[in-house]
């Protein structure tokens, strides 16, 4: 379908973009448009104005900042996958991004757009949550940092305020000894995850010293599998890991849709967490 | 109404466009580039794939205003001097189409895939074309055609 009418502006700076958004509460940010344009075409959204931030140079690029990697919000999925800084500094993000949609969509879609859209079925929110990322919001007042754990508020809803634009993401680097895996379950190529599990695992002495697990599509927001994470602390590879991963769905409220009922998603979360943890621990 | 400048298949156009105009509709309805079809209209099928500044995109998921200042190549811009591009010829020779609706997008996606991997394996082709759906021939001949097209393009590079 053809989208409903809207105005369009392409501001020359982040400050201008924020001013446009602050002046019109029905205006919406346009990044790569790979989630927004389908919504407009299906007439599920009726913004008065699109504020196109896709070309703002200050919002693009990957930067190695010592203890963390800073990724500009308008960095495309394709650029994320190809970045040596990402594959070395936060490989989990590269692994998960490579599973997003298909190559053509990854050429346009952006990390920041995907996070600000906050679809719990998107792959990247759970990854940034698992890695304790920090989201940097720009506004006319300056920059504000929001931990990922506080950023995803509800279904398609974030802690961004009116007049704020997601400028970038800080991903803390994990030291040596960590392994990573993103386990995505879907029935057809390029489909959304029915459930996805992002796992970062540190091994020591044949056991798991620390695990961080982000869950995709197990509630209205991306979630951490907190109970499984604590049970995994000190768990030996084998039965102890299996038992700990049985707690992966604790505290979740997975949706029901055409693809799966909640109880099936809970089952998937447990199985996929076990697979993701073992793969991240180098013991598939 | 915003005015955009866009180069399509080597010709530069200046167009006044409504912000909601999709790139695929600009190509087809305004510029007559009907070689690029509209398939699913929901970003799934990839039939409308074109190159935007050298990278494959689904032109139903790009606004015409987003293509301002950009270089677009459609299926119609691939051949030169009335002859087919090696990838088009490979699709023809391997019978990689039946109704042909998905073919323009398949060819564009295949050429994009070869940027990174000039001699892709069958698995790499199947993975690389995951954003393009064919609903009649199936994929066996398409994969074969991409292999052949890749080899002929590699050959062309070597001999030129």
TrEMBL record, chain A:
<keyword id="KW-0274">FAD</keyword>
<dbReference type="InterPro" id="IPR005107">
    <property type="entry name" value="CO_DH_flav_C"/>
</dbReference>
<dbReference type="GO" id="GO:0071949">
    <property type="term" value="F:FAD binding"/>
</dbReference>
<feature type="domain" description="FAD-binding PCMH-type">
    <location>
        <begin position="1"/>
        <end position="176"/>
    </location>
</feature>
<dbReference type="InterPro" id="IPR016166">
    <property type="entry name" value="FAD-bd_PCMH"/>
</dbReference>
<dbReference type="InterPro" id="IPR016169">
    <property type="entry name" value="FAD-bd_PCMH_sub2"/>
</dbReference>
<dbReference type="InterPro" id="IPR016167">
    <property type="entry name" value="FAD-bd_PCMH_sub1"/>
</dbReference>
<dbReference type="InterPro" id="IPR036318">
    <property type="entry name" value="FAD-bd_PCMH-like_sf"/>
</dbReference>
<dbReference type="Pfam" id="PF03450">
    <property type="entry name" value="CO_deh_flav_C"/>
</dbReference>
<dbReference type="InterPro" id="IPR036683">
    <property type="entry name" value="CO_DH_flav_C_dom_sf"/>
</dbReference>
<dbReference type="InterPro" id="IPR051312">
    <property type="entry name" value="Diverse_Substr_Oxidored"/>
</dbReference>
<dbReference type="GO" id="GO:0016491">
    <property type="term" value="F:oxidoreductase activity"/>
</dbReference>
<dbReference type="InterPro" id="IPR002346">
    <property type="entry name" value="Mopterin_DH_FAD-bd"/>
</dbReference>
<keyword id="KW-0285">Flavoprotein</keyword>
<dbReference type="Pfam" id="PF00941">
    <property type="entry name" value="FAD_binding_5"/>
</dbReference>
<protein>
    <submittedName>
        <fullName>Carbon-monoxide dehydrogenase medium subunit</fullName>
    </submittedName>
</protein>
<keyword id="KW-0560">Oxidoreductase</keyword>
From TrEMBL, chain B:
<dbReference type="GO" id="GO:0046872">
    <property type="term" value="F:metal ion binding"/>
</dbReference>
<dbReference type="InterPro" id="IPR036884">
    <property type="entry name" value="2Fe-2S-bd_dom_sf"/>
</dbReference>
<dbReference type="GO" id="GO:0016491">
    <property type="term" value="F:oxidoreductase activity"/>
</dbReference>
<keyword id="KW-0560">Oxidoreductase</keyword>
<dbReference type="InterPro" id="IPR002888">
    <property type="entry name" value="2Fe-2S-bd"/>
</dbReference>
<keyword id="KW-0479">Metal-binding</keyword>
<keyword id="KW-0001">2Fe-2S</keyword>
<dbReference type="InterPro" id="IPR012675">
    <property type="entry name" value="Beta-grasp_dom_sf"/>
</dbReference>
<dbReference type="Pfam" id="PF01799">
    <property type="entry name" value="Fer2_2"/>
</dbReference>
<feature type="domain" description="2Fe-2S ferredoxin-type">
    <location>
        <begin position="2"/>
        <end position="78"/>
    </location>
</feature>
<comment type="pathway">
    <text>Alkaloid degradation; nicotine degradation.</text>
</comment>
<dbReference type="Pfam" id="PF00111">
    <property type="entry name" value="Fer2"/>
</dbReference>
<keyword id="KW-0408">Iron</keyword>
<dbReference type="InterPro" id="IPR001041">
    <property type="entry name" value="2Fe-2S_ferredoxin-type"/>
</dbReference>
<dbReference type="InterPro" id="IPR051452">
    <property type="entry name" value="Diverse_Oxidoreductases"/>
</dbReference>
<keyword id="KW-0411">Iron-sulfur</keyword>
<protein>
    <submittedName>
        <fullName>Carbon-monoxide dehydrogenase small subunit</fullName>
    </submittedName>
</protein>
<dbReference type="GO" id="GO:0051537">
    <property type="term" value="F:2 iron, 2 sulfur cluster binding"/>
</dbReference>
<dbReference type="InterPro" id="IPR036010">
    <property type="entry name" value="2Fe-2S_ferredoxin-like_sf"/>
</dbReference>
